[in-house]
Amino acid sequence: HAELVISAARAGKGVFCEKPMAITLEEADRAIAAAADAGVPLQVGFNRRFAKSFRTAHLNVVEGRIGTPQLLRSLTRDPALNNPAASPQWVIFLETLIHDFDTLRYLNPGAEAVSVFVMADALIAPDYKSNGFLDTAVVIIRFDNGAIATAEASFQAVYGYDVRGEVFGSAGMLTMGNVSESDLTRYLANGIQADSQRLDTDLLRDAYIAELNHFADCLRTGAKPLASGEDARAALAIARACIESFQQGRPVAVSRGVGA
Hints:
Blueprint: H1 2-10, E1 15-17, H2 25-38, E2 42-44, H3 52-62, E3 69-77, H4 91-107, E4 113-121, E5 136-143, E6 148-154, E7 162-169, E8 172-178, E9 182-188, E10 191-195, H5 205-221, H6 229-248, E11 252-253
Parallel strand pairs: 1-2, 3-6
Antiparallel strand pairs: 3-7, 4-5, 4-11, 5-6, 7-8, 8-9, 9-10
Helix pairs in contact: 1-2, 2-6, 4-6
């Protein structure tokens, strides 16, 4: 979507962009620069930042309620596989797991990914693996604050759309989005607290409303969006490293400079 972002920004329009904002880091840099030069807000559709459970978890981490983040987990499981023949190459990293990469950064505030290692396959549609279509993946991410994270994706959640997050820290744990039990659960020294929410259709309903309201506020006030172009670039850098890790079968450093 980078060229559309650039065109809209040059026309003086604030931009709300679906992820991925760009496919390469160079495209992402040009999109970010165009919005900055035009003085318009650039927000990317990382909706989990605006879901009540994830937003509350982020604030709990910032406030130190679970101590220092040590282990993190984020997963996305889609209910059904779209036509793999019509799907872009590396879609599981660039369009699906990119949500999880952003979520893990959001739940580990101030930290950046330094390396990734990928294990992935085409378990649902194996005939398309040679075309770069993967439908099942687990990514291990090392952050510069020492935390270790996993991101997981599948396109065959027959029980419904499944989005979850977890942060384990030195003083407790937070879990988000378990559709069968609770929306946000706090594991602290004084006990376990759970806020219940059950239907997958309700899982991110509040997030879609909140992110659009936030974008409208940014348009009115000129404030920087909470899901910015820079956030999109950071998630893209992780996704690009994942592609390289899968191709090479080894851990790969996450680039912070301009790259392919």
